[in-house]
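new request in #modeling-help
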Amino acid sequence: MSRILKHRLFWPLVILVALLALNLFFTDNFFKIEMKEGHLYGSVIDIVRFGAPLILVSLGMTLVIATSGIDLSVGSVVAIAGALACLRISDLSDQNSVGGVLGAVGLALVLSVVLGAWNGFLVAGIGIQPIIATLILMVAGRGLAQLITDGQITTVNSSPYKLIGGGYWLTLPFGIIVVAVVLALTAFLTRRLALGLLIESVGGNAEASRLAGISARGVLMTVYAFCGLCAGIAGLMISSNVSSADGNNAGLWIELDAILAVVIGGTPLSGGRFSLSGTVLGALIIQTLTTTIYSIGVPPETTLLFKALVVTIVCLIQSPAFRTKVFHRRRRPVTASPAPEEKVRVTA
Amino acid sequence: MAAPAPILRMSGIGKQFPGVKALDGVDFRLLPGEVHALMGENGAGKSTLIKVLTGVYDIDAGEIELEGRRVAFSSPLAAQQAGISTVYQEVNLCANLSVAENIFIGREPRRFGRIQWKAMRRRAEEILARLDLDLDVSAPLSSYSLAIQQMVAIARAVDIDAKVLILDEPTSSLDAGEVAQLFRVMRRLKEQGIAILFVSHFLDQIYEISDRMTVLRNGTLVGEYLTSELSQVELIGKMIGRELADLEKLEERPPASEGAPLIEAEKLGRTGAIQPFTLTIREGEVVGLAGLLGSGRTEIARLLFGADHAGTGSLKIGGEPVNLRTPRSAVSRKLAFCSENRRAEGLIPDLTVRENLVLALQASRGWTRPIPRRRQDELVDKYIAALNIRPANPDQLIKNLSGGNQQKVLLARWLILEPRLLILDEPTRGIDVGAKAEIQRLVAELSDGGMAVLFISAELEEVLRLSHRVGVLRDRRLVAELDNDEGLTTDTLTETIASGARS
């Protein structure tokens, strides 16, 4: 029992379940999943579906944060990817041609990787602090997205493109499948291959990693490029879902939600150890919260405040120091309590 | 001389951690105006005893009396207010703040809530003057050497009306001159009646400064002795519970076989770090580097490993001219470098022993070729057993290991790669006698097996015991290269360091 309690995903899971349970009081049949015309429908499915872009961005963000960096530009990359794809598709003579759409999607993703690598170059090659380096693209990227769409909202009418964000495949929303594939790919790269160890090592102690022969520059470039790719996919999903590209508002503030999801999932902002499953949970918590706000009918003008309150509570519950303080008042102050754990040292 | 009443008395102290009895029925007393050494191997319970005394940990059994009154400190702050100040091994001051700010942090002289900077600087200067230090107190602490930072920490500690001053390994990163300066400060404090509890791994220093000593072993008390009545050999016997034949055995080193030159540095240098030097290291040879702290020992190591770029000169490895741009290219040529700065340049604290161990190997393979789990287990088990790493749990986080065991893990990280040249920068600093002997023996074995070793240490005895040749550094210049024959003693080495040439 205490092992379950101590598991680092225990509290995020409790919070997610609590949020879902809360919905049950306000929405009938909240957990009901039904099959309509060969497609799965249900509130829970919707949460994952609408949360898919956030999960994607958060996965990339997790790896960046694990290297003790941060990527503020993901929202702009989301907008740029959507804008470029929509622009290319709207130029097609036949918007429904699969080849043309694939070309547009491929081009958008390549650009996303290039933008991510640009961040990586600023951070690893030139040595700019990550928050500043990515701030550049965060600001400039919005402009770039508007440049691509000429300041207009570009709309497309393409059924193959619509599939990415709004379609179904094998009874499941296509977005969920994309997330599953990217998650599996990330897990494979980091946990089956050794990328995860090198990332955690660079994030834990960059200089020691360099002296151990790790090419920190290569690791950082890879990670930022990957983060760009994730943001690009998310951007395609978002613009495909509404069949249009909005350079101004697509992916606005998604970087903050993603950072939040990573932190809720238990990856410290200081870098080092990261948890992909934690991040997925964190992103789901945020999406569930958004859904909950609508379903319990929080007045629109107070939704942001409500969200902020819940997030604060979530973060506090997550913090071991806070839990000891509140739940173990009879014991001595925190200075003494974490110590024994730290000092599991056998006499030499 | 009749012993005055002890200012501090701890009796029957017991402290239990999950699975470990860290202290068991330990008695300890401290007399005013004495320097009392607390001795024992890593893990013997020295740090735990200090932490129990200063309120970092609760005690499970026993009691503490300060000036005859029973006390129990709930935090280091409470202990400090009662007059027990501690200076730890790692300077824990804020390097970005000024010297004066560091001395008065948390208790700045104020008037109407405003800090009185002038008064603060003046008082900081006074306090430092008491310790014979003349510093610019408004300069950031980081502009001074580690030794000076240590003194500032002591200045801060004694200014808080300390009756008891605890110095936990204050000398581990100081050179001889700085140690002498520290000892002057300690003697002055002693005259003022302050009781000093001193922890150090350097036996010579213990014998120079301490009046009495208490020896711990495996969390229990071995005994309390007058320093003048206990010889070094007896002391080591009491600390490790066995005779120190192992250390002595090493004295007889076979001469190095004439191996092929592995490293040939020709006028290699870097402005501001080290003057151009020429050095050859042969296969199977141990080359020692001796010199004061800051004389350029580490800088030579870093140039040879590609950790810094050389500004001038050329380097050949195995006869082939190379230009090492990164440590990575050095590693690919089978060079290995154990930094003196374990914490900043060696450990990845949040990773496990296993991950730290295989890190260099994984780095050299690249991330696309992971080391199979079974191979990892083999390697880790082999090196944990071979180097006697404790606890022998590969999934323990490395930050929870003692210093000596961390050092062994870092050594193992490089040994896995089977390097041709192993550069060891202060591998035995701050670790206990037992682990030290093990590491020294390992170096001897490795060089017998054909590995070249560049061995850097502030302890001249150690350099002499292990090296075939000794390079002497002074003021960032390699001033002499001496063969380690009968004529070479610590005295001649010291003279060479002092004068810059062999007398």
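bot summary: The first strand of chain A starts at residue 34 and ends at 36.
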